[in-house]
Backbone:
């Protein structure tokens, strides 16, 4: 040891500072992983540039085709434009239970199996009219089951679509700092368009 240098004494944290630091580390690690993943999925626009983290490429193509048939692009952006397939990939890998993953994966396999059996092509490569027919048939079957793939896919598509930045800021009205709350007003006063919040 160099005699000219004094050994450093460790600084002690008091209890309040230790709890505060531990809470920040725990909160940052939880929020950093899950919320960042969800936010990243919502900002991406092109399915071709997206590399899925949890679904394989074939599954992502099927998810994209189904989501786009549920919410197709018209005069407003469609599900793919809003980043719904990326959103579903993140939800699949981070938030679904084992049972939900099983139902979802089997549903994707069933979609392609039905498509190949009746039309000798994957669901994603079929014309939209045929895709719509297959989806109508599966939607009818879904009415009899509480845990159905179609119900899950529809709900995730709607959630991903309406919580996306694109839809929240460019399609729906958005006022980040709203004024006074008025509960009962005529719709014509706000422009006949639904609001984000």
Residues:
């Amino acid at each position: 040891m160099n005699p000219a240098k004094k050994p450093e004494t460790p600084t002690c944290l008091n209890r309040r500072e230790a709890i505060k630091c531990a809470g920040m580390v725990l909160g940052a690690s939880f929020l950093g992983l899950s919320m960042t993943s969800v936010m990243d999925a919502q900002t991406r626009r092109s399915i071709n540039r997206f590399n899925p983290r949890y679904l394989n490429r074939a599954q992502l193509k099927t998810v994209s085709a189904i989501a786009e048939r549920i919410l197709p692009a018209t005069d407003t952006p469609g599900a793919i434009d809003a980043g719904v397939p990326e959103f579903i990939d993140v939800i699949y890998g981070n938030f679904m239970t084992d049972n939900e993953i099983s139902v979802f994966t089997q549903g994707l396999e069933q979609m392609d199996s039905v498509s190949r059996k009746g039309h000798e092509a994957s669901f994603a490569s079929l014309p939209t009219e045929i895709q719509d027919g297959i989806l109508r048939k599966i939607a009818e079957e879904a009415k009899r089951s509480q845990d159905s793939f179609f119900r899950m896919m529809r709900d995730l598509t709607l959630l991903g679509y309406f919580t996306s930045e694109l839809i929240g800021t460019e399609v729906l009205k958005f006022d980040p700092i709203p004024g006074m709350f008025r509960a009962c007003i005529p719709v014509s006063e706000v422009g006949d368009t639904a609001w984000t919040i």
The CA atoms of residues 115 and 126 lie 8 Å apart. The two ends are 64 Å apart (CA to CA). The longest helix spans residues 15-43. Confidence is low (pLDDT under 50) at residues 36-46.
